[in-house]
């Protein structure tokens, strides 16, 4: 069987079943673990499927995302890419700054990679708060409100009221999709919180792995042109990088 036939077989299976595991590929195609993973990555790089821990998922494109992934589900996606972004972005934080960190698994990795403790961090993300609470930061503030269990974020009127009176040297947010000029997420309430945080920040940073580009979701909360810097991983295509460079400052981190 030719390589392309094997790739087609993998894609057919994942589109039919919705998921596929590395073990299934090894068994059905009689190939090694390394080769199976390489094939999956090739298909993912072409935006034909989504890599997850131990396998892949069917790509959801062409329409709005119908189901919001939970925080736990997202933790298994693009792990290496998120770690890469987080390590790079951590060096953008300086001593004694007040920064905002939004919800999302990329930002949870970012919280783990913060290289300094002499800072004030404000967040509406319970997972981010719990990660940073293990360290003795100068100041750590959790903004409360209505709790969204699926993402671990606090949202709603109380959250917006508390954030509206705060100012940040830098705000770090993430998203579910970036399409043309739009930065989007699944939840309108989470989008509104990030919009306020970005508005009140001197420097605005968007942390997004390569799988988020040329995708869209339900609620657009910000314009690419109004972001100071987008930080993505080394797998971001040169074509996408060139296109976005015309709209904003974008950086590819290094593995």
What can you see in these coordinates?
With 255 residues, this protein is α/β, with parallel strands linked by helices. It has two domains: 3-58, Arc Repressor Mutant, subunit A (Orthogonal Bundle), CATH 1.10.10; 71-252, Rossmann fold (3-Layer(aba) Sandwich), CATH 3.40.50.1360. The protein contains ten helices and 15 strands. A seven-stranded parallel beta sheet has the order 6-5-4-9-12-14-15, sandwiched between helices. Strands 1-3-2 form a three-stranded antiparallel beta sheet. A three-stranded antiparallel beta sheet has the order 10-11-13. A hairpin with a 4-residue loop joins strand 7 and strand 8 (153-155). Helix 6 (105-113) runs parallel beside helix 7 (126-133). The longest helix has 15 residues, at 3-17. The chain is elongated. It starts with a helix and ends with a strand.
Q: How are the elements arranged and paired?
A:
Blueprint: H1 3-17, E1 19-21, H2 22-29, H3 33-45, E2 49-52, E3 55-58, H4 71-75, H5 79-90, E4 98-101, H6 105-113, E5 120-123, H7 126-133, E6 139-142, E7 146-148, E8 153-155, H8 157-164, E9 168-173, E10 177-179, E11 182-185, H9 188-199, E12 201-207, E13 219-223, E14 229-232, H10 238-245, E15 249-252
Parallel strand pairs: 4-5, 4-9, 5-6, 9-12, 12-14, 14-15
Antiparallel strand pairs: 1-3, 2-3, 7-8, 10-11, 11-13
Helix pairs in contact: 2-3, 5-6, 6-7, 8-9
